[in-house]
Amino acid sequence: MVSDVSLEELHEFAQRLAIPKRGFHGDHYDVPLHIREMAISQGALEVTSRELLRALNAAGLRVTAKERRDYKNVADANQGSGAPVSDRGQ
Question: Could you tell me the pTM of the whole model?
Answer without folding.
Answer: 0.69
